[in-house]
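Bug #77: duplicate submission created two jobs. Keeping one. Sequence:
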Amino acid sequence: MSNDLRLTIGEIIKRPLFQHAQVVAGHHGLSRPVRWVHVLETADTGQFLNGGELILSTGLGFGEEKEKRLAYLSELIRRKAAGLCIELGRYIPSIPEDMLELANHHQFPLLVFHQPVRFVDITQDLHEHLIHAQMQALRNLEAYSRSLQQLSLQAAGIPKLLQHFQVAVQTQVFYYSPNGSPQFAPVVPHDVAVEMSDLMRSHFSELDSSEAGVRFLSLSATRQLAYQPVMAMGHVLAYVGIVLYERSPDEYLLLTLDNTVSAMAQILMRKMFVEEQALATENRLFDEWIANRSIPEEQVRSLLGITGSGKASAYHMILLSFEKPKNLAEDSLPPHDLTAIFRSLLTRHHFRPFIRCMGHRFYFMLIEQRPLVDSRRTLEIAFRDVKRIMTQILGADVPIWMGVSRAGKRLSDAGRHLAEAEQALAFCQESPSPFFADLGLFRLLFHVPSEPVLKTFISDYLGPLLAYDQTHGSSLVQTLRVYLDSNLSKQEAAEKLFIHRQTLYHRLEKIEEILGKDYTATQNRICLEIAMRAREWLSKEEQH
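Kept job's structure:
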């Protein structure tokens, strides 16, 4: 199946009606494809051009007037016409040098008819050819789509699909995955493969991964890549492309590329889903950690398929929680599909991911595939992408929270590190950081029994204020919280509470009356802040 169904100017001048035509300028543009043929005599009507038209003219609208003829030719070039055919005669007996120079400068084909021709015969001949070519392209595309569907039903792999694509477009094609080596059809020499791999790795790593559609990369004056990302749920799984040499892509080629990309997305998603189904062992391991059961180091290594007895790589336990929108159907969120996408994304960031989805939570164990220079920064970048994908699915207004443990070394301690992630998640709305290491004093709260120590502590420091709020329907506890969080700045606290400063002064006087004048002293202030956060944490725990 040939994909080159276009008619170029170089091919048009070989047709019988052009036997007396001569190319007088723009010889380097003869490979331009022609989409339609149009008779146009003045620059004023150039607005009706869409690009790719071969223009026929007698020179009636511009004749030998320099200003008009250059304006006419410039307008055709600006409107991306394919070329211009002028019938020499009464209105323009010869092509002036200034038109030749302008056409040559833009590599714009300029043809002349030395004998009178019937424009109607030319348009009829070329239009019949163009319409036939378009119909043939549609038939070829339909046949290609059916063959793709058959290959998908046969569970064909990426190499077979790539070979099928290459046969359809009859040019060099490639498949690039960020997690593997590029594949080419037909196979290219080793040195070319290495050069192309380095180029793709550099170029694709800098792309905006949220943009779909065809893109182009110029390699030289005569060679370019046309490629399209294989996407699922806003995440790029791979890239499929075509190497174009001395040509631009036609609509058939781009539609064939798009159909191929869609088929590959289905194959990759099906493959990832099958892999997720095989991860039941990992899920059971996460269940043990969540239940805070101790598992020996050797057993964890065995269950995770980690061989060797050398020093284990650092790992991180992460909890990601989201609030499911009320208008989202119960079965509209495919957790297994999301897990597969996350696994692909996190692997790209040099982690070996183990993931468990339960309810509105995702549990992650990320083992560093190699020692990371700045693991914290890498985690921040990776989970920024994770949150972007979840936002695309759930909506921009859905809250998403995260808690990150300290880096672990011994796999047998994974349960303890998961508890750290749980604590970081519990305080994520109060802390500007999702990292357990940044919680400071509040790291201690998880280890203090809620009965009776924590509740007694809260009652001793906040009891009088809580009682006053309950009796009078006031909000002194919230006022105190904002005031302390504002580092005792009355102006900042008033702005955050959306009240006048005078109102804040009255509230602070009442707080001082209830708690005593020294409530802002260092020791008392620390205890009050811990008591307020402990109360909020206990309230969340009781809700769960």
